[in-house]
Amino acid sequence: MTTSAVSSQFRALGIRPGDTVLVHASLRAVGPVRGGVRAVVDALLDTLGADGTLVVSTQTPDNSDPSRWAVTRGRAVPAAEWARLRETLPAFDPARTPSFGVGVLPEEVRTRAGALRSSHPQSSFAALGPAAARITDGHALNCHLGEESPLARLEELNARVLLLGVGYSVCTSFHLAEYRVPSRGSRSYGCAVADGSGRRWHRYLDVDFDTSDFPALGDAYESQPERPVTRGPVGGADCRLFDLAPAVAYAAKWLIEHRS
To answer: Helix, strand, coil shares of the chain as percentages rounded to 5?
Structure first.
């Protein structure tokens, strides 16, 4: 596929000039595109136009407590190594630390000229476009994906979500709804950060996230009579496009009803 062909399919799916779109993507699902990930990002920016803003999750869960590396990095380390690793793990640098576990498209966006990135050491977002500063500024150190995160700013901006060849299990927006569940659980997090005093190990409490029921939640949202989700192909990828704010509102109610 060419860049122009990908742009045409984005437009057919319903992406409009001036939209603010949070994208989660699997380029393997899309299939071969002439120019690779660069061409896909070019197609997104072309479709959004000069007034649109492209947003991606540039999370770094590998900057985490070594006791949880079996989950966050996919490999466990002996408990005897944990203290040393807490002392030596590189601090998060918004300008240089690569994203982890989210595919190649976020790195292409993050490293483009003019891109801005939020400052959370584990759950940052990067954005390109006129709304980038509003979206990425003020990401609180102790708030992964809640009211003091880019997700809440995207909600205010009536942003849209594009699941490009991926399912609801990676729909980050649903995590914002988890903050609005009164009985939500919490747990301790740890990461390496840098501030005016140098590098330090930071511990904080935040929501204990659970994505296990996100596919069922997404299917329930998608099956409503008003059909809030548009589906269509981009290359070989089955894609979903929907407005973030109503999806988060529905998710909060659904989670309250379905989680004990």
So the answer is: 35, 20, 40
Give one word for 109, left, alpha or beta, with left for phi > 0 and alpha for psi -120 to 50. Answer: alpha
Contact by Cβ (8 Å): 95, 112: no
pTM value surpassing 0.70? yes
Helical residues (DSSP H) of 130-243, grouped into ranges: 132-136, 150-156, 173-178, 214-222
Query: Tell me: the pLDDT tens digits for 203-229?
Result: 999 999 999 999 999 999 999 999 999
Q: Taking Cα atoms as reference points, which of 109, 209, 226 lies closest to residue 169? A: 209
Cα separation, 74 vs 19, whole angstroms: 36
| Coil vs helix vs strand at 242 | strand
Whole-number CA gyration radius for the chain? 18
Best CA proximity match to 61, nearest among 49, 72, 71, 69: 72
**Beta carbons of 161 and 244 less than 8 angstroms apart:** yes
55 and 65 in contact (C-beta within 8 Å)?
no
Element (H, E) at 249: helix 244-258
pLDDT attached to residue 174: 98
The HSE-up count of residue 23 (CA atoms within 13 Å, CB side) is 31
DSSP structure string for 104-123: HHHHHHHTSTT-EE---SSS
